[in-house]
Amino acid sequence: MQIDSSSRPLRRSGIAAPPASMYRLASASRHLRSFIASATPRWWPPALARRVPPRFAAANPPARHDSRFPHGSRNMASSSGLKGKDLGKPEHGSVELYGYIAARDRLEPLLNYVVNFSRDDPIIVEQGSLINMAGPKRGIQLVDTTLIEYDMKIKTGKHEDEDLQLIDGVSFIDDMETCDRHVYTCRLRGDGGVVNLALSRLKHAVQATVEVAISQVRGKLIMQLGCFTSEIDEEIRIFDGAVVGSHGLRSSAVAVALDDHLDLRFKVAAEPCVPPAEHCCSFKASKHGHATEEIETGFALITVKVTWSTLVRA
User: Fold this and answer.
1) What is the pLDDT of residues 149-162, one digit of tens each?
2) pLDDT tens digits, 126-176
3) Any domain includes 113
4) Cα gap 243→217, rounded to integer Å
5) Pair 198, 82 in one domain
6) Are residues 185 and 236 in the same domain?
7) Nearest alpha carbon to residue 129 among 57, 243, 226, 211
8) Among 206, 243, 246, 245, which residue's Cα sits nearest to residue 225?
9) pTM of structure
10) 280 with 248, same domain?
11) CA 139 to CA 57: how far, in whole Å?
């Protein structure tokens, strides 16, 4: 098994790139080849370093029935988890992170954010804990070369120039000879620590757009939402925090193998110190249509809607 992968730092004004930036894809079973880019991939997005506002597909894109892929499906990448390791100084038990990790694929080579946090609203991350993934907004097509671009910092001071650069660069992931439903860890290394991005290839996959609405909230609700796709054991953390009042969570796109299921797991408690109650629901993958399910937790009513579609060009 072999994956062609390479990476290089992005040249941004005011940021000094490390002299030998090299990142590696690693498998649970063996180490995979790593090297510094010596040539451009088979396709290359225009003006990579220039920030282009992302243009996402519709939240509920129409199903595509004519496709060269079986059953209208595509090979897709699933972001199966995101963890921070050795972040900041050793004495830091938790840190505030901001910045983004995004993918560019052949479907539409603009930024498709996996995570994106502003400096004014950073995320607090414990060492080695899962990072909430607000994205991607659409599925990531894994055909030929897919780019993973990232720029994340640790908030340490009052001003941005006092902050610590965590990771900054771009990695190339190739689909050749990757194993279906096998999880690989892309270790994004920087001066401020390591971010491990777990990825897997799903053959003949479709897109599930997950929408969660919370109503009839009785007081304050502590909730954690994770999902599992296509019998892969790695959890995708969608939400982890407090819920006050009725509202909807941000929708998330998840790749699911067409012959398999998407499983959602909610952990709900009225207080942080109270052991949470666990509620699960499962959805069978489909080329189109949607399914809904309601969960009565005793603290709130959770309504889950999953809309199925195949990837289409914008």
Assistant:
1) 999 999 988 899 99
2) 877 778 776 787 888 887 788 889 999 999 888 999 999 988 988 888 766
3) yes
4) 8
5) yes
6) no
7) 226
8) 243
9) 0.70
10) yes
11) 9
